[in-house]
Amino acid sequence: MTDSIDLSIPRVIVCIVCPNGCRIHCEGTEDGVRFTGQKCKRGESYAAAELTRPMRSLTTSVRTAFAEAPVVSVRTDGEVEKSMLQEISSALGQIVVTSRVKIGDVIAKNICGTGVNVICTSDRLVHPY
C-alpha cells in the first residue's frame, strides 16, 4: 500500500480521527512502513491513507445572482482527493447560482468527475436576512 512512498526521511502525521490528536511517526523499513505513536487502531489506517491518498472535504462559497445574498455556502457531500481541491475550487468559481436553493440542494453534480456532489449548506437564499 505504501510501497511508492519515500520514507527515507521519517514523517510525522497528526491524526484527526479522534480528539487525541496523536503524533504518528511514519518510518520506512525493509518490510514496509512502521507507524508509532498512535493511541488507537484507527490512527495507523489514517496515517497510511495520508501517505498514499489523502482525502479532504471542501467547504467554500459560490456566487449567486441575488443582490441580498451575493454568495451562498456550499460543501462537498463526500471526500475528494486532496490533489483535486484546486481544480474543484476553480470549477466552483465559474458557477453562479440563479435559483433559490436550500440546505442539501445539489449545486454541482459529480464535480470534476470525482463522483462527489457539491451541496448548499445554507437557507440564505430561501430566507434572506
From TrEMBL:
SUPFAM superfamilies associated with the record: CPE0013-like
User: Per its UniProt record, what InterPro entries does this chain match?
Assistant: CPE0013-like_sf (IPR036593), DUF1667 (IPR012460)
Q: Which protein are we looking at? A: 4Fe-4S Mo/W bis-MGD-type domain-containing protein
Organism, as annotated: bioreactor metagenome
